[in-house]
Amino acid sequence: MNNPHPQDGESGQGLAYVLIISAVLLVFLVALVDVLTRESKWIVRQAKGLDLLHAADAAIDRGLYALQRGGNWDGIPSGSVIGYDQNKVYSDSPGMLYTIKIQEGNWTPGYMMGDKASERTITAFVTYTPTGEHKKVQAVVIKSTLNSALFSGGGIQVKGSADINWGPVVSYASGPNTIVDPANADDHPVYMSRGGIVAKGLTPCLGDGIPTVGVCYLEYASVESLGTTPFVDLDQLRFEADQQKTLVNPTTLGKACVDVGPAGGPMPGTAGAESVIFYDTCDGKNYYPPPTGSNLCKGACTAINNGADVKFTGGCGQGKLIVLGDLTTAGNGSCEDGVLLPPPADCNKYDKDGDTCPPYNVYTNNEFWDGFIYVAGNLNSNGVKMIYGTIYANNSAGVSGTFKIFYKPDNNALASLGKTCFIELWMERAPKAGDVFPVSLP
After folding, report:
1. What is the DSSP string of 18-84?
2. Which of 210, 274, 336, 409 has its CA 20 to 30 A from that of 196?
3. 317 has which bridge partners?
4. How do 327-329 and 317-323 pair as beta strands?
């Protein structure tokens, strides 16, 4: 039996199918190659874009680091430090050139806004040298503010005849009664809080008004007006105290409290502007605040009773006093007579009677600290004591009696604290007319 043969028409039709399918596949192949080519180019562009972004971020970090070095916060915007007004080209990132511009205040809208004193705008201009592509990034950084006489992360009470001079009282808490019944509210000082203030005889400032002694106080204040809560580097301070032999661990005392004064022991070490006297926790760890019970001097160290509480009934000191528990003061200070305390140049902002801001003469031996005091727990202060400097009570602060604080404008003890900066805004910006990007090394 013979096999059937296809007709000529059927053979031609099969060939046509093959040609049509081949053409369709060719079209898809061309489209696929085009997609892959575009995808490859997109990936390359993305990689270049990420490299540019990383270089810009590194430039921001360089500016931030420079601002935190001594004197540069004000020196860089004034032009006294070369390299931060687009007057130096950096090339430490492979294939990248960049310049940095640092300005006072917040320039992200294109014009100056914000606070010239506490904010800086860092702008990075980056060029990818193989292609000439550009990237512009801006960041606004804010400096932690330590220009307060007394501030706390919690509530504050200023009672009786207690008085704060030449600087504000600040609460970073946001509750309804963060500062309650401040004494001398019509005279000393001004009060600022992220929460509500219960004060007699004062009218709250409206909106972002400036608090004025005897006129208004600033409640429900914003981060912009108060700044961020200052960071206290306890590990570094603990190390410095250990080097100075002024680190006190309560486990060596057999109890989680320290008495300083006539009824207790002396303060460790010699006092000086650079000294750090550090009363540690039982386990040597940092707590904010430390876990403590309800009574001062409450026995041996336990898991609950961990902070080194300090009861200060007498004595005198200078530098940084760090208490990782509660601090209670009573009795009188014991510094020498005739101490002259110079006020800050702008103390009339905080002192209604200080139009000329005369120095304060201490003719009685009631000064007990010159410098900075940090209390991780609660501050409970009374008696006839005077402080020249700043107190930071992390948990809460209550001052009464004839306890007085005079803010110290040139407080050496704050040197390592006042340089802490935080980035509050970071954004990529489209280049605008007039922007100059580096094209080569000078």
Report:
1. HHHHHHHHHHHHHHHHHHHHHHHHHHHHHHHHHHHHHHHHHHHHHHHHHHTSTTHHHHTTTT-STTS
2. 409
3. 369
4. unpaired
Beta bridge partners of 322: 278, 374
- Tokens representing 268 are 């460790």
How far is it, in rounded angstroms, from Cα 190 to Cα 208?
A: 15
Q: 1-35 burial, b for 16+ CB within 10 Å, e for fewer?
A: eeeeeeeeeeeeeeeeeeeeeeeeeeeeeeeeeee
pLDDT at 270 over 90: no
- The model scores a pTM over 0.70: no
Q: Which residues contact 206 (CB under 8 A, 6 or more apart)?
A: none
Output 272 or 363, whichever has higher pLDDT.
Answer: 272
> What mean pLDDT comes out for the span 402-419?
69
- Alpha-helix runs per DSSP H in 219-353: 223-226, 234-243
Q: What is the DSSP string of 337-371?
A: S-EEEPPPTTGGGT-TT-SS---EEE-SS-EEEEE
User: Whose CA is closest to 252, among 297, 308, 327?
Assistant: 308
In whole angstroms, give the CA distance from residue 204 to residue 219.
7
How far apart, in whole angstroms, are the C-alpha atoms of residue 254 and residue 407? 36
Strand 119-128 and strand 96-104: the pairing is antiparallel
pLDDT, tens only, 193-205 = 889 888 777 778 7
For β-strands 360-362 and 327-329, DSSP reports them as unpaired
Q: How far is CA 219 from the centre of its chain?
A: 21
What is the percent of the chain where pLDDT is above 70? 67
Q: Please, which pLDDT band fits residue 97 given cuts at 50, 70 and 90?
A: very high
Q: What are the strands of the beta sheet with 96-104, ordered from one edge?
A: 96-104, 119-128, 133-143, 421-429
Residue 425 β-bridge partners: 140
Q: How far apart are CA 254 and CA 340, in angstroms?
A: 40
